[in-house]
Amino acid sequence: MAHTAAKTPVRPQPRAKGQETAARVRSAALRRFATSGYAAVSMREIAADVGVRPGALYNHFPTKQDILKDLMLTHMAELLAAWDKASVEEKMDPLERFVRFHIRYHLERADEVFISYMELRNLEPQNFELVEVERRRYEAILTKILERGSELGRYAVDDAKVATRAIIAMLTGIPAWYREGGHLSEKDIEDLYLKLVRKAVAPGQDTSQRETG
Q: Where is the HTH tetR-type domain (predicted)?
């Protein structure tokens, strides 16, 4: 009778285990930063949440600032990737596509949104520049939509970059107040904000030269 060799349990590889720990650090820091604010959180608290000694964190993130930078850059990378992969209904107006995508994506990631916008002030200058490059890449998507729409007479904006920042600021503020289960559904929010955005860029009579009463 042939003897079958006993199977040796597969142990996690050091690299895979390290990646898992780093992911747990990100998750714990995300919750802490969103709840208490970056400045009030210590590496010791993050380590306690992960279940490791504080010194172990430094194998993955030398400083708390590195964690914050990583969270923000990851958020932007995933946002841009999601835009590229998003399905598009045939003949949907590009502006509607952007508005609905932005609202849906950000409502599902309230903590990431809060940190990515409210904690920009706590980034060191070199890290701020890195994050700002990615933010500008995302803003450029809407700016091009507005510029092209204006050329076609579909929209009317005096400065597409300024309009872009105003629209994104308005849409990004939704997760701060919206709560699931209220009298407005996510679809209702999308529709209402889409109307607001369309009115803001709708071609019409220029009121800048109107006389005041």
A: 19-79
